[in-house]
Amino acid sequence: MLIDALFEPNFATEVGLRPEILKAIIEAQKPFNEIDLILVTHKDDRPFPCGECARLLAEQSQVSPRCSTQVVDLMRSIDGFTKIEHQIYEIKLKAGAHEQVSHNGVTVDVLCLYHEHRPQTINLAFVVEVGGARFVHMGDAFFAESESHLRSYPFEQAHIDLLFLINTIVMAVLQRLSQNESNRSTSWQCTWTRERIH
Ligand SMILES: [Zn+2]
Predict the structure, then answer these.
(1) Residues lining ligand 1 (ion), CB within 5 A?
(2) What band does 47 get if pLDDT is binned at 50, 70 and 90?
């Protein structure tokens, strides 16, 4: 499984993949030879790596991305899009809605939120259950801005083991989590909004 991957390292100061790693992923070289699912949280100011994603899909017919209509629309301009279109699963949710998708034993609940400070950009959050563990990847969504939408998801019935957050609030969350190490459900509640974190 890849989440928001395939970016090259030469974009400003952002972390990216070294060319040889990117090539290995696209060409399914070990240890990247068993990828079958790509989760894309959103399109961003930086160019979504449409070309790299398309090359990977063309090379590996078993790989299927899950992405918003905004991301799919970006990919439509790629040469050869019609050849890989059938591999792409488009998430057509409206903000606040969620949908469950499964792929080769991995269950993913997709939550439709907005990007931080940018309500015109759809940001998908992923609740992924794999190997008996469940993690949440928030993409670039803020809790405070998405709270009403997040509350529509039954987190109380879905114990979360691991939470991936946008880096601007990670430090604050870690600080609070360290005060609640023995109580994971409390820790999760503490991450619910930025206001409560602070
Ligand atoms: Zn972003």
Answers:
(1) 44, 140
(2) confident
What are the angstrom distances between the C-alpha of 4 and each of 16, 157, 174? 10, 27, 22
**What is the tens place of the pLDDT at every residue in 95-143?**
999 999 999 889 999 999 999 888 899 999 999 998 889 999 999 998 8
Boundary of a domain, candidates 92, 119, 136: 92
Alpha helices in 95-193 (DSSP H): 143-150, 167-178, 184-190
Last residue in a domain, options 92, 109, 125: 92
Range of the domain at 6: 1-92
Tell me the CA–centroid distance for residue 82 and ligand 1, in Å.
27
Global confidence as pTM: 0.82
CA angle (168 as vertex; 156, 97 as ends), nearest 5: 40
